[in-house]
Structures are given as structure tokens and as C-alpha cells.
Amino acid sequence: MENEKLSQDEINALLKSADSVSDPERKEYVLTNLESDAIGELGNISMGAAATAISTLLGKKVEITTPLVKEKTISEVRKEFKGEKIVVQVDYTKTINGTNAFVIEPHVGAVIADIMMGGTGENVDNELDDIKLSAIGEAMNQMMGSAATALSEVTKGSVDVTPPKIERVNFDEEKVPFPPVYDDDEVVEVRFKMKIGDLVNGDMMQLMSPSFAKKFASFLTSSLKSEEKKEETSPVQQPQKSDERPSQQTAKRAEFQEFEEPTSTSALPHKLDTLLDIPLEISVELGRTTMTLKQILDLGVGSLIELEKLTGEPVDILVNGKPVAEGEVVVIGENFGVRVTRILSKKERLYTLK
Hints:
CATH topology of the domain at 33-220: Chemotaxis protein chec
CATH architecture of the domain at 33-220: 3-Layer(aba) Sandwich
Shape: globular
Oligomer: single chain
Structural class: alpha+beta
Strand content: 15-25%
């Protein structure tokens, strides 16, 4: 028996079993560290825009924290959830193609639905009927629309999303049809915290397949690599060697050319020049008002909406939703226009960014 040799198949089988015993945890990951960071940064950009959209919709400050990205198996994800949750499926189209699933705590969804239906968001019932689910779906539609717009600016292409599909899923059931994003047994989990004023601070989780996650991250990683390549290929001035003598040249009096007053564009730092072609959305706000969902549904042709602004007051000029100036409405031919009457000071614009 001592002289008997093992076959190659037996050796491979032993090595495979040894690996499974000595290292039961997964050690191989689909995403690199750079790709995980890129997904986190893109999630930060898209959810930041989504938070701004839902803040306007609810009339309350909404914060979504910086995401935490992890790779897990389907079974690990299912074990994280207990009881009934809200699952929202969103499909990205055009530049980015793929399915994402968002998991929201019922209490977070109940607060959103209550505010959208004219309530205060306090002492809400976590039981969600079809009307409340429809309200949550509209809120998610606004959020994901803003997120897609933000991603379009990053990817330099058109990013669209389909209307979200929302449902209640009970994770206590033995066979849960979740999530709808997996390829094999792997899934990428992006975890956020959503805070709505002082009412709620709950979890929101985004799940995507590894193949979609790599494609999603490539929009940011590819641009970073191209910038690094440009820096590497840029010419570097070589220092003069100590044994080299400078050439003999005749010294002359320095004559300086008189320059004109620099324009605002030429005075900008070089790094800021790369931002000059980024498109910004300019809008004019005639006024605002607050209405309940019932009042909105009662609107018809000829209905009047009273704004919280007096006649003749200057209108606000917004850039990406932030006020930068004031103006007055004028008529140019058959079109409306706005004549700028005042530019907000740097101090005033700084306070609006907070």
C-alpha cells in the first residue's frame, strides 16, 4: 500500500475537498476595489439627485447616506430580511441596460405614502394597501428619473428608466421569488440609509447583478484610466545636469508686453476649465404653493392655483434647482423671457447650497 501512487484525478479531488474544508468562506470576488469604489461614487451621485427630487415632492428634507457596496450570494441576501418588505424593480435602458431591485422598509414607505396623500407622516400605519403602494411608486418614479438624469451627465449618454414595478414580498416564506437581478448565485448589494426629516431613518438597499455592476462601474473607471494615461504621456521637463555648462548668451533688458484686462473665462483655474461644457438646467420659478393629493386630483381645465407670491414681485432664476438671480418676466415676440434684475451675492448663494 505504501508504494501505491494516487492518480491525477484522485489528487484533484483531494485538493478540491481540502479547499472547501479549510476555506468555507468565499475569497474570490467579481468586482475589483476600483470597481466597488466606482459603484459607490455613482450611487452617491444618483441617490443625491434622487434625494433632492423627493425632498421637493414631500416638502421635507430627505437625506440618503453614502452607500456601502458588498458582494453576496442570493442566500446571504435573503437571510438579511425578515418579514414583509417593499421591493421596487427598476430597469435601466439605453446607455445602461439592466435591472435593479430596491428593498425599502415598510415604515419608510408608509411615511412617504402618508405625506403624499396629505398627511403629516406621523403615527402612520405600516399596513400598505394598493393606494399607498401607488403613492410610493410615484415617489420612486420621481427619484429614479432624477437619478437617471444625473447618471446621463456622468456617462455622457442618455440614461432612461422604466416605470418602477412595486410589490410586497414576505421574506419569511420558504421560497421567496427574489431578487429579480441575479445571473448565477452572486449579487452586488448597495446599502443606503434614508432619513426623512425627523420622521424616519431607515434602510434602503439596491441590488444588481455582477455583470450589470461591472458595466455600471466601467463608465467611471474608464474615464479615470484615460485621465491617468494622459498624465503619463504628458511631457516632463528634464532637469539640467550639473556638469552641463549653460550656453553663453548676451543679457538683455526685459521688455514686458502690456496685456488687456483678462476676461472672466481666461482667469479661471485650469482644473475648472474641464467643467465649462457641463450642461446645467436653468428654470424660472413664478411661485410655489402646497396642495394635498385630493386637491390636485380635483383640478380641471380652468382651475386657478394661487401662488405664494404677490403680483409684481421678482421671479427666482434657478440653476440646477439652486437660486442664483432674480428677474422680471417680459414678452419677446411670441415667447416669454426673463430680464435679470439682480444677481445673488456669493454669501446668499452659499447659504442656498446648505
